[in-house]
Design a protein that fits this description.
globular, 3 helices, two-stranded antiparallel ribbon, Alpha-Beta Plaits, single chain, alpha+beta
């Protein structure tokens, strides 16, 4: 299983971020082929007791690396990627890896 964590920094306008993210970006993401699931945090996500905070973290799950690549290469994936620049004024960090249940 492949997961991508999409970690958004605090935006200049949190209300505008939320509106765009929920009304425009999530519908684009949900159209991506091969996407198994998409989860988001309910509010900020802290990094350790002394670390910084992310405004929102999304976790995108795919069955395989090939599925992730196909999703991102699709027209729907390209639209979702291009949309990030329209609302993520606080920056975005991506972490992708293969996960297993232990």
């Amino acid at each position: 299983m492949i997961r991508t964590l999409v970690m958004y920094g605090t935006p200049e306008d949190p209300a505008a971020f939320a509106k765009h993210y929920h009304e425009i970006h999530i519908p684009l993401v949900r159209k991506m082929p091969h996407l198994k699931s998409c989860e988001i945090t309910k509010g900020p996500a802290a990094i350790g007791p002394d670390g910084g905070e992310y405004h929102l973290v999304a976790i995108l799950t795919y069955d395989s690396h090939a599925d992730m690549e196909a999703a991102l290469a699709s027209a729907e994936g390209q639209a979702a990627v291009a949309d990030v620049a329209k609302f993520a004024s606080g920056g975005v960090t991506l972490v992708t890896g293969e996960y297993e249940t232990v």
